[in-house]
Design goal:
Blueprint (H helix, E strand, L loop, with lengths): L1 E5 L2 E5 L5 H9 L8 H15 L4 H6 L9 E5 L7 H5 L4 E5 L3 H13 L5 E4 L8 H4 L2 E7 L8 H11 E10 L5 H9 L10 H10 L5 E5 L6 E2 L2 H12 L4 H14 L1 E2 L5 E2 L7 E7 L3
Parallel strand pairs: 3-4, 3-6, 4-5, 6-7
Antiparallel strand pairs: 1-2, 7-12, 8-12, 9-11, 10-11
């Protein structure tokens, strides 16, 4: 709220920004991937995609956890974050909308001799605080980017956490590669809402969070161009045959070959931002 004096009169102007509304508006024209089918379709490939990603290690190094803590891992996927958390915590609730992802997580947990992980095949938007129960620590690793009305979910997450919350979201201009590919195909390109929306929504909620860039080497590595094209198809939406041909030619000309024989996008490195806060005593 701001007051401006004009002559003898003082005019009150409301300039409060609706960050949640802007977030929702930005999501409207982006590929819809926040559904079980989309994640089920890539579940079997997810382990391979994550093999050379040092992001999990970077995030886990920032999460403070005691051995008697309970953890809620929202959007847990195949358990790349969940498993290490369960090795430190007394119990973990692993939540994901993909039943296929949870099947892989359970297999990975069994292989790691862990029996302190409970799974929940639901999205955070569809559960209440009472459904989930209180947890000492809440983690949402790269899982809130497509959530609508995120302000309501952030408030819910804050209420669930007893000690601390850790969220990772897109960095500024992080989806530029997808936009470049859309422009190559003559499609309209749109910006994905990034971490600054969430930071400001939290601020409006009275939550004054810490913000850190996660300096990770998050890249996607592939054994061949067809595998890269398959991942790109998932990232930017369905492709027709002409579009596939255009992208295949582009990838063949621009992908970089690594020393171990895999290939990667020359400009496809992702940036992630960690937003975290501790609950007041």
């Amino acid at each position: 709220m701001k007051c401006i004096k004009t002559g003898e009169n003082e005019v009150e102007i409301n300039y409060k920004v609706d960050w949640n509304g802007l977030w929702n508006k930005s999501l409207q024209n982006l590929p819809k991937k926040n559904n079980p089918e989309s994640w089920d379709n890539i579940a079997s490939k997810f382990n391979e995609w994550m093999e050379k990603d040092d992001y999990p290690e970077k995030l886990l190094n920032r999460i403070e956890l005691d051995s008697n803590d309970s953890v809620l891992d929202i959007g847990c996927g195949n358990g790349v974050i969940t498993i290490p958390l369960a090795q430190k915590a007394i119990k973990v609730t692993a939540m994901d909308i993909s039943s296929k992802m949870l099947e892989i997580l359970k297999k990975n947990a069994k292989n790691s001799d862990l029996n302190n992980i409970n799974t929940c095949n639901r999205r955070i938007e569809d559960v209440t605080e009472e459904d989930v129960g209180k947890h000492d620590v809440v983690v949402a690793s790269r899982s809130l980017n497509g959530v609508s009305d995120i302000g309501k979910e952030l408030e819910k997450i804050n209420n669930i956490a007893k000690k601390s919350v850790y969220l990772t979201l897109w960095g500024a201009d992080n989806r530029r590669f997808e936009r470049e590919m859309a422009q190559l195909l003559g499609r309209e390109s749109h910006r994905h809402p990034d971490y600054i929306y969430v930071y400001n929504i939290l601020h409006d909620l009275g939550i004054y969070a810490n913000v850190e860039m996660l300096e990770s080497n998050t890249r996607n590595y592939y054994s061949n161009v067809e595998e890269a094209l398959d991942r790109l198809r998932w990232r930017i939406g369905d492709l027709n045959k002409d579009e596939e041909s255009i992208l295949r030619e582009y990838l063949e000309e621009n992908m970089i070959k690594t020393t171990d024989g895999t290939i990667t996008y020359s400009n496809g490195k992702a940036d992630w931002v960690l937003i975290w806060w501790k609950k007041s005593e």
